[in-house]
Design brief:
The protein has a single domain, classed as 3-Layer(aba) Sandwich (Rossmann fold). Helices cover 33% and strands 15% of the residues. The chain contains 11 helices and 8 strands. An 8-stranded mixed beta sheet has the order 3-2-1-4-5-6-7-8, sandwiched between helices. Helix 5 runs parallel beside helix 6 and helix 5 packs across helix 11. The protein starts with 8 loop residues before the first helix and ends in a 38-residue tail after the last strand.
């Protein structure tokens, strides 16, 4: 038997420059590996990262697909609904053969078909004040792909309490809006909207409709923000709200300042425990509530 062959200079260079990536991984992620902002070090960070997506719908679908394609190591899908025919116009992670399936399981199948190396955790529960902190624990970044105010306020309050960065987005008709929240480094969702609007003030997508591509654009932006955060590149949408008008094909942005009196992230926050908030109609802090912290 011959002596073991020593690694060539090129093989050593690949190991050094690409941080132990396999040849298949180098090929799969080649288009982003050549970006100086990513490279082997950034790709390794993505592969070691964990992102939770709340809602496998119009926003969560493109976000999940692009995060999986980018090589994020572990993706969580939290959704308690099942795939309905009316979902397929915009929720592109599902297909006709997925009808009736739990959305979390349908999303897992699609993600693993796209990138088998991604670990997918399914959570077939609806977030509430009793389980939110447990579900959100341990994730590096959260994508808010929910479609209702109570869940959006709940995600915000839980993430601020536990210092978890997250991307918020909302869509209606031809309009989309998104911002990124890094707790204690900038404003939170309650700095933008202190409490939920009265019932009927804002129609739902079911009532008013939504162009399918709008959540596609916003979900892709949310995935981009997550990737940038995970690799430490570029400027995030912290303290800025990005506004998308699809009908007139226009992007605008406006500054969002932290409210010192914000009940969630203010100088003297009122919310120290999720049980203090009534996540119902207005998502207000309960009167005379006392936090545990």
């Amino acid at each position: 038997m011959g002596e073991p062959k020593s690694p060539s200079r090129s093989e050593k260079a690949v190991k050094k420059d690409f941080f132990g990536l396999t040849q298949d991984q180098i090929v799969r992620y080649s288009r982003q590996l050549i970006l100086k902002e990513v490279g082997g070090r950034g790709q390794r960070k993505l592969m070691e990262s964990k992102v939770l997506i709340v809602g496998a719908g119009g926003l969560g679908s493109p976000a999940a697909l692009y995060l999986a394609a980018a090589g994020v190591g572990r993706i969580g899908i939290a959704d308690s609904d099942r795939v309905d025919l009316s979902n397929l116009q915009r929720q592109v992670i599902h297909s006709t053969k997925s009808l009736g399936m739990p959305k979390a399981e349908s999303a897992k199948e699609t993600i693993q078909a796209l990138n088998p190396e991604v670990e997918v955790t399914t959570i077939e529960e609806r977030l509430d004040s009793g389980n939110a902190l447990k579900i959100l624990k341990g994730w590096d970044f959260v994508i808010d792909g929910s479609d209702n105010f109570p869940t959006k306020f709940l995600i915000n309050d839980a993430c601020v309490l536990k210092d978890i960065p997250f991307s918020h987005a909302g869509v209606l008709r031809f309009i989309g809006m998104t911002t990124t929240v890094i707790p204690h480094r900038g404003p939170c969702y309650r700095c933008l909207i202190k409490e939920a609007p009265p019932p009927g003030a804002v129609p739902t997508c079911q009532e008013a409709g939504v162009l399918g591509t709008v959540p596609g654009v916003m979900g892709a932006i949310q995935a981009t923000e997550a990737i940038k955060f995970l690799i430490g590149a570029g400027n995030l949408l912290v303290g800025r709200v990005l506004y998308f008008d699809a009908l007139n094909l226009r992007f605008d942005q406006f500054e969002l300042k932290r409210n010192p009196r914000c009940p969630s992230c203010g100088d003297k926050p009122l919310i120290r425990d999720l049980s203090q908030v009534d996540y119902g109609t207005f998502c207000r802090v309960r009167q005379n509530a006392r936090g545990k912290g």
